Amino acid sequence: MLAIIIPYYKRTFFEATLQSLAAQTCKDFKVYIGNDASTEDPADLLQHFQGQFDFVYRCFETNLGGVSLTQQWERCIALSANEPWLMILGDDDLLGEKVVEAFYKNLEEIEQIGCNVVRFATQIIDGEGRSISEVYEHSKLEKATDAFWRKFKGETRSSLSEYVFSRVAYSKYGFKDYPLAWYSDDMAWLEFADKNPIFSINSVLFYIRMSSASISGKIDNLENKRLASNVFYEDISNDFLSFFDKKQCLKLIAKLEQQFFKRKQRSLFFKIMKYHLKYTDLTNLVKFFRRIYYN
């Protein structure tokens, strides 16, 4: 069975999210809603949807998302039973009416291949529910590092909601606790895939809302996003450079160089030097030293 986890905080678009669950053509899922001590009580909305799909609701006494969004995800997952597949659904995102049906239609093949991560085609909507982007589709089977590289180059998009992942993979790796959980989902798919391909379902759509109420839509989180980016790219370099070719490694190492010239940390200098020696060549290491000299 599929467990759909909703870390709830804002009511603004929550009714539309619940309606998209009630409209599913396949009801073989259970929803677990964890209220992060929100001041916007959703109890009356949930009462309206009672009996339309199976759900469990828990209101936590303390706000955790303001301290660590990934820990809020994790305590909401802890509400679930032993469902083998998990989805973390934003309280403002929408499922196309056949998302769950399409998941089960492909499940036998997903399990035969050994995929731990499944994703759906997506389209971005605004606060009024209007489409504001193209439809983003993917290859049916794609290495997680290739998927990340496409996003790195701006050729696609990705966020937490449109993924389904195995409980086994989640239990093995958990989520990296970056500020605002920025890049935490990207790292999750790299780790959860566990060297197996990501399985994509393009026959149905997930609608991802972009508004001033969402983290992605806010402009006052720039410093925390920058900090998250710094740690994420250090982790990428530590754990995944061997999966990229030389040109890709140079671009990823360049992200660390940008940090180095801003932070002037000796430890980062030695890491960059090591990565050039291991994944690029001596010429690029010399160029790095030259950039240090001129800066």
TrEMBL record:
Key words, A-Z: Glycosyltransferase, Transferase
Pfam families assigned to the protein according to its UniProt record, in alphabetical order: Glycos_transf_2
InterPro entries cross-referenced by the UniProt entry: Glyco_trans_2-like, Nucleotide-diphossugar_trans
Record Gene3D superfamilies: Spore Coat Polysaccharide Biosynthesis Protein SpsA, Chain A
GO MF terms held by the record: glycosyltransferase activity
Stretches assigned to the Glycosyltransferase 2-like domain: 4-135
Keyword Translocase: no
UniProt entry tagged with the keyword Nucleus: no
Domain of life according to the entry: Bacteria
EC number(s) given by UniProt: 2.4.-.-
Protein's UniProt name: Glycosyltransferase family 2 protein
